[in-house]
Amino acid sequence: MSYPTRVKLVEVGPRDGLQNEKQPVPAATKIELVHRLQAAGCKEIEVTSFVSPKWVPQMGDNAEVMAGIQRLPGVRYSVLTPNMKGFEAAVGSQPDEIVVFGAASEAFSQKNINCSIAESMERFAPVVQAARAAGIYVRGAMSCTVGCPYEGEVAPDKVAYLAKLMKDIGVQHVGVADTIGVGTPIKVRKAIEATLQHFDINDVSGHFHDTYGQALANTLAALAMGVWQFDTAIAGLGGCPYAKGATGNVATEDVVYMLHGMGISTGLDLDKLVDAGAFISDALRRPSQSRVARALLAKRANAPTCEAA
Ligand code: HMG
Ligand code: MG
């Protein structure tokens, strides 16, 4: 079996990771997190979302966070925009990429963005058109590609249908999301195969939440198909406010450890990622969800000091 030799990770911790936090997280903490992530080598960072602050209060500081980041050359910053209002608010922040987000299940579309799948495409189409006219890259997130919190199992033909709709409106890349982390490798493979009916392998990424502890296995299954782009969240932060009980994305540290152990390069510095994860976990006053980070922090704590040696 051959795997890609290099993988691109999109760090979604500041957005997917923090959007579900009940406690207010100051904009300064979010900005510091982005700075630490880019210091660890992250070249793609999903920073925030331009959604309704009534729906997702935690992202209400979107423009402040975007304005506060000291951008590094070579790093691309993306934001979520569900409609023209969101796009118009986002464009002043000069994102490199915008993300429209739809769902393979009707019920999740209604709960998450308050419209049907067909209506979501009507809202996204002008966003995609405006973004591309402005030279901004457009990614489409496809939620609930294996399971839905309201409808249960989701068939691959629904994924293929959503991928076609995304393609038809001009979305350039799609992320196959297991929003509630119920997927297992063969189901995830089928969702990706359905997506590949409409998108090239180079325009498809994996976005796996780790609720049932399957996200690394699902990542490996996708890698074996040739997928080389994944969304991950530092310290395994997060969840979706409209997918109750779903935990965070697969932890960046865990994916990087696995990939580096397989000889696959990411351009990321695992020690610095662990530091960034420790920073945000301390700020949220909770342990990291990353098994690798916990192991490496324990190893650091137990390492003999110079005096003891
Ligand atoms: P709506 O109520 O249908 O929108 O919400 P509307 O157009 O009828 O407007 C209602 C009010 O919202 C108006 O304000 C608008 O101005 C305002 P009012 O007159 O009542 O004061 N509004 C906005 N305000 C700020 N920014 C906007 C915006 N649009 C309308 N962009 C809407 C539709 C999509 C806005 C709403 O449902 C919403 O904000 N949903 C948030 C969904 C969300 O952020 N979910 C989490 C992200 S998706 C995710 O996590 C999944 C992903 O990780 C992949 C995976 O894991 O599956 C990507
Ligand atoms: Mg997500």
Structural notes for this entry:
The protein has helices at residues 13-17, 27-39, 62-68, 84-91, 106-113, 117-133, 156-168, 185-195, 215-224, 252-261, 270-284, 291-302, and strands at residues 8-11, 44-49, 76-80, 97-103, 137-143, 147-148, 152-153, 173-178, 204-208, 229-232. With 309 residues, the protein is α/β, with parallel strands linked by helices. It has an 8-stranded parallel beta sheet. The protein has a two-stranded antiparallel sheet with strand order 6-7. The longest helix is centred in the middle third of the chain and has 17 residues, at 117-133. The radius of gyration is 18 Å and the shape is globular. The chain starts with 7 loop residues before the first strand and ends in a 7-residue tail after the last helix. It binds 3-hydroxy-3-methylglutaryl-coenzyme A and magnesium ion. Magnesium ion (MG) is lined by residues 16, 177, 179, 207, 209, 240, 249. Residues 16, 19, 49-52, 55-56, 80, 82-83, 85-86, 89, 101, 112-114, 141, 143, 177, 179, 207, 209, 240-242 line the site of 3-hydroxy-3-methylglutaryl-coenzyme A.
